Structures are given as structure tokens and as C-alpha cells.
Amino acid sequence: MSRAYIEFRNVFFRYSEDQPWVLKDVSFRIFSDQWVAIIGHNGSGKSTIAKLINGLLTPEKGEIIVDGLPVNEDTIWEIRRKVGMVFQNPDNQFVGTTVRDDVAFGLENRGVERREMIRRIDESLKAVAMADYRLQEPHRLSGGQKQRVAIAGVLAISPQVIILDEATAMLDPKGRKEIMDTVNELRTQERISLVTITHDLNEITQADQVIVMNQGEVYLEATPREVFLEETLLQTIGLDVPFVAKLANELNKDGNIISKQPLNQEELLEELWTYHSIK
Amino acid sequence: MDISFNQVSYTYQPNTPFEHHALKDLSFTIPSGSFVAVVGHTGSGKSTLIQHLNGLLRPTAGKVQIGDYHLMANKKVTSIKSLRKHVGVVFQYPEHQLFEETIKKDIAFGPRNFNTPQAEIEKRIPEVMAAVNLPLAILERPPFDLSGGQMRRVAIAGVLAMDPSVLVLDEPTAGLDPKGQQQIMDMFYQLHQEKKLTTILVTHSMEDALRYADHMIILDHGSKYMEGRPVDIFKEKEKLQAVQLDLPEIIHFLRRIEERFGISIPYRKQTMAELATEIKTKLKGVSKHE
Lengths: 279, 290
Hints:
Chain A is α/β, with parallel strands linked by helices. Chain A contains ten helices and ten strands.
């Protein structure tokens, strides 16, 4: 059994005392090696969770533990070495004038020795298939390429968890798929945990666990299959389920045609095949 | 307004090492009142195309016609401002462009620039607030207090307040949650029908193209790759895949049902409930014959 890598214990957060709570009594655990998707309507508190994990924001009440350390002023730099984050807009994240310099930035900040730095830059750019672009200017790259460089910057610091905060939202479907494939491959290779904060319903089908946020509270915590059974509930809080889940739920409305909630077309076709063969 | 592109090419930074041919010999017509989806992957020329629609760019070669307005190389359009009054463009993440201190002032900014009389602006504000489904009570509040989805609605209200007859939408649902996406698209579709607008939607969502558009234009490397009714376009899976575009999930699934069970269920905008019934009935029918 893997251990809890990130833990929220009764966390409350608001921007100031006269403002409403952004997070209300939020508790959950994310285990090492896991892929956890956090979904929720706009303004449900998803992104706040990401910013609390690496200490960009501080909770008013409650405790956040990352790799056994409580997140506070004394531990924040150590925690940021363990937690890599990629945000939505790649253009807001570049500091270097070349791809290589940009990836080097995080390493320089941590005082990594030069030879080691060069090795890590090469490796991480290779991992995201951007090695050929190391001398290019970041702003000349496509959106998907920019996000891959941002991910390389995160990989270079060898984090134990990668958080993608709507990191694929501005990409086209192809770019989105490339990024998710890259990150997921790295996750299994490097045995790190992955937290994706997303609106993309199809993306959550690949996660091990889903945390559904609603108005600052954890609304549901379950596997994708379990989440997809709750179509009506999700719709009442501004979310939805993917096409395959919707059709399966509709097919099951009068009689149990589908025995196991399908995650993809293949599984739904199998279920239909069984239904069609029995009679 | 009818829109036509006649052999339009556009080149960025011509005669320099950075020369880039963004549009190449592009021709198509969009009849007044139609809903057209423009599709293509990143870098295919979609953004360059829409910047021609309100004269932000002029073609390097060829001719763009929007109603009575003509855009050509080397010919300055004298009435560009009135063209922009007729063509409302909702750019990507339009909420980033909000700047006024109240929602009301922000919405009024566009029409005031076009010298619309104050009385007329006052009349339009409640109309556009209703169209984007925002309460009038918030008009005096700063737009920046709102949620992302609401800020986008304010920005859209500002475009609608100019009372355009052509509406250009560049990825209008990017970054919104699923419910917000559906609401915004349903809103545009309703406006399209009620106001008899000509709507041009730039999108990555094949689902939206299928659901809302009468006509689709697919771009690849600045050229027109395919054009036609969405249902016809989506019959050509291989051709789409060659330019890295997918089928809408429902179409893809219906194809696989046909491959697997030999039953054909044509897509005709059926609801999920209708589709489920159809699948069940047809699957039963198949097993009877075995």
C-alpha cells in the first residue's frame, strides 16, 4: 500500500475576512503513484487547492501535509522542490530567452551544479520530445510545444508530484492528447503522482481517483466509474459526464442492460455485445 | 450579410526571412443567415481568416467581400469603422479585455465608440443583459468581481450591444466548465436564430460543429481542405484523420456499432434518450434474425 503523499486536513481558505470561504473544511489524501483528477465548476475552489499545496496561498484553518511535512514558511522551499506545477497559460510562465535557459531557471534557483544542470536539461527536454528546440525562443513555439517546455522545466527539478492546473485547456485536441500521453508516461516511468485540475471530462477517465469540488467543498471522492454513475448529481453542480457514460446511463434507465459502467467506447460496445447475445 | 472570399492569400512579413503564408488562395461563400464552423488544427490559418472579417487584416492577394464592403490589397477601406459595427467579433478569452469600472460602462463602450445615441444605448443594455442571461441588478458593479463565466458573458454583451449582423466567435467556450460551455453555445444559437445573424464559429470542438453549424470549412496549412454540411464532412473519417481531426464522438460510436453489429443508425440530432431506444430496438431486431 502506498502512503499518503499529499493530505488536506480540514482546510479552510478565504482571501480576506469579509470574503466568503473559497474552501470549506476540505479533507482528502492523494497517494504516491496515483493520478488524481480534481474537477468542479468555475469558481469551485479547484485551483486554490493547487496553490495551497505548494504554499502560494496559506490556509486560514486546517493543515496541509506534503511528503510528511506540514506546509509552512519553514518547509515551503523544500516542498516546492517536490511539487512541480504547470498552469493554464504557457505565455505567463516563461522567463528564459531560449528554451534551454528557461528550463535552466528552476535549476539555477536551486543552486544545481553546472554539469548536473546540463544533464538534467537535456534529459527533461528529451522526455517531452523538445530536445531539437533547445535554442529556440519560447514565444515562437506553438501552444502545445510551450506547455511541453513548461513541463520540462518542472521535470528538471525531479519533483515527486506534478500538478497540471488546466494546463491543456488552451490547446487543441491533438496538443492536449500529446501532453497527457507525455505526462502519463513520465508518471509511470518516474513513479511520481499526478494531480490534474481539469474541465475535460474525457481526461478524468484515465485517473485512478476523482475529487469533485462544489462551492468550496469536496462533493464526491470516487473512481471515475463511480463518478460517471452520478450524472444527475454532476449536472446539478455545473458538470457533466462524457458521451459514453451518458449513453450507458440512458440505456440503463429501464432495465439493466449495462452491468459495469463503461469508461470508453470499447467497454460500452462489449456491454452491448453481451446484451445482444443473451437474448 | 453575405460573405465571400475570392482567392484570398495572406502573407505575414513578406520578403523577410520570417515570411509566412498564413492563407493560400482561399475561396468560399457564406450566405447571409447561415451558421458556419471553421475548423482546423493550430496554425491552420483560422485566426488569420477571422481577422479579415472585420478588416483587422487586408488580404495580400484576392478579395474579401462582406455585404457591400470590399477588402483588397493596396486599397484602404474608407468605411472600416462601419464594417466593424456590423461584424461583432468575440475573441478568445474576451473577459481579458474588460476594463471599465462598471459592467454598464463596459457594455456601453462599444456602441458609444460608434456614436450610437445614449438613449439607444440605454435601451440596448437591458436587452443584451437578458440575452446573455445576467441580472440587471449587477450593472453598477465592477466586472472584475464576477466569476470567469460571468465575466465572459459581460464581454459578449458588449459585442452584442453594437447590434452586429455578423457574429464571429473564436473558441468562445474555452476554459469554461461543461455547463457554462453548453449555456454559452445555446445562447449563441438562440441569438443566431432570433436575430437572423450570420454566425461564424471557430472551434476545436467537432461536437459543436455537428450540433450547431449548417456548413463547415476545414482549413489546413492556410488552404481550404474540405467544405460542406457537417454530416457529410463527418462521413470522411480517413480524410479528416489525415489532418489530425477526429470525428465527433457520437458519429465515431455509431460507426463502430455498424462495424460490430451490422446495424446502421444514421445521425439526425437525436437526443440521448432517442439514441438509446434506437440502439436497443435495433439490437433486438438483429438477434431475432440469427
